[in-house]
# Entry
Amino acid sequence: MAISDVMSKSLISASSSIKAARMQNGIKKQMEDRAGVLEAEIRQEKGNAPEKQKELEKTEKKASKVESMTMDTLSGMNTDLMKAAKEDQEKARAEKAAEKIRGSRHGYGSGVVYNRSEESVDNSTYSINKMSASDRAALVDRLKADAEERKNQMMNLVQKTLSGQAGTFGKASGDDLWRTLASGKFTVDRATKAQTQKDISEDGYWGVKKTSQRLFDFASALAGDDVDKMKEMQAAMENGFKQATKSWGRELPEISQNTLKAANKLFEDYYASKQALETGTVTA
# Structure
């Protein structure tokens, strides 16, 4: 199995720690050798060597301190390696969970299979809700990390676009930044425009289909197969869009409104699937 970035960095750090520990052990050995010489000289002088006795005590204390530093170095290295191993395990578990989801959906973001006219549901679609608590927790971490990375990419794109436009980005931060974007009073280069159009296209990461699916998947991972908790997640999502509207300073763009509608439909389809289970109209 390939070594992850986290483990690679931890191993590099461990190598440095081992070198430091070896150096500290070398210093400790020199001090112990000096202490041995002083003890021999004190015995020869039958204990009548107060200056050498003081030096011996000082040398022994230093040797003890160096030994303690070495133990701390190795202990810290061990802690870092264990942490890296745990992060690797959690990442592998999340990837396994995500692969399980992709397999059941024949591709991420394929959506819910529900036919209102026939009142039938393919319940295998809701595989996240059926996952164990530990697998769902791992998936939440993965979704958070992915969202944070994508958000940073988007913010970097915004900064790159506005930073060279005097009086725009330089004065805009927080809600003012979003209102600046909402105003449309800025220009973008051709490459940035092309990338943005790709990102918000039907199959783009920030498109309606994939964004609404991520919102629903995140809620499913947090709530599990619990209708009441899913309703709490839906309410929290809707509140988030309300807060975004305030930050935007006006009605959200059509793509955002359509995303909310699509996400709400996924929730409603889920509730309908649970109702269908109770009435026995679930497809095999």
